[in-house]
Design brief:
Two copies of one chain form a homodimer.
Chain A: H1 10-20, E1 26-27, H2 28-34, H3 43-55, E2 59-62, E3 67-70, E4 82-87, E5 93-95, H4 100-111, E6 115-126, H5 128-133
Parallel strand pairs in A: 4-6
Antiparallel strand pairs in A: 1-3, 2-3, 4-5
Helix pairs in contact in A: 1-3, 2-3
Chain B binds a DNA duplex (30 and 30 nucleotides) through helix 1 and helix 3.
Chain lengths: 134, 134
DNA sequence: CTTAAAATGTTATATTATAACATTACAATA
DNA sequence: TATTGTAATGTTATAATATAACATTTTAAG
């Protein structure tokens, strides 16, 4: 079995490609409108590709924005958990990697007798560029 | 100016009431269907009440589930930031309060030259009850 | 009282996502 | 290579979530 990325199907590659070439997260219907020339005609085709890409960790969903972003980390282990810095000014998104987050959240959960499995974290504020401009 | 809770309007009270008496987060249309006997007829009436309740911190939205939960903390300051433990088995939700989260996230953001303003955190796993049952 | 801001009621519509089902591609292996 | 089971596809329809627009009413402060 080769790497997951090698096995992507046509639709999956098409969707991943547009996400990887975007400087910001994209919405499912934005993706759809942008690639209707490439053989994808229905929302379901986009959502199915996204589901698969999320499953293998190549794409993450940003829940509070209903948008999707390609993961830039080679062997990203964030198949389940995600942590983002989201700029309220320019909408840029940076993924946090340091996995001390995992152990920190485990401890927080522990205090409540809760068994940590995974998390979504979205931090909002100003990115470096926008801080300087304001 | 009295406390915000005193100033709630009829629709806002109706929506808050159903959320406070629910053991789990509710979706907007679930709320709508449940209270159509109380004079609320359209989705917009529910969403407007929710918007206001969220604004004053009496209700929080759980982004990954498109659902809403009443805040049980008297003077909840989570008007903007929220932190939840969400049980994957029974869908129960507990809100985290310890605001060491704030300073922790500030530091994480700082490392990326990002100016922290607020956050949403959703931790998934098993609650105490469901841990024992499994 | 007056008045300005907020909330309401209502209809329509936009946005996000999935159901259902028939068909096709594809890799493993007998 | 023929078989076969799994995954992916294509397509139409529809479900679920949320907002636009606008006329009207309520409310609370001065």
């Amino acid at each position: 079995m080769a790497l997951a990325s090698v096995n992507l199907t046509k639709n999956q590659k098409t969707v991943l490609d547009i996400l990887e070439n975007s400087s910001e997260p994209l919405k499912a219907y934005t993706i759809l409108f942008d690639i209707q020339k490439k053989g994808i005609k229905s929302p379901l085709q986009v959502y199915r590709a996204l589901d698969k890409l999320i499953e293998i960790g190549k794409v993450h969903k940003i829940e509070s924005r209903n948008s999707y972003v390609a993961c830039k980390h080679e062997g990203c282990n964030a198949k389940t958990s995600t942590s983002f810095l989201i700029c309220e000014n320019c909408d840029s998104v940076t993924e946090l990697t340091g996995n001390n987050l995992f152990s920190y959240f485990s401890k927080q959960a522990e205090k409540n007798n809760f068994n940590y499995k995974k998390h979504n974290l979205e931090i909002f504020g100003l990115c470096e560029n926008c801080k300087l401009k304001n």
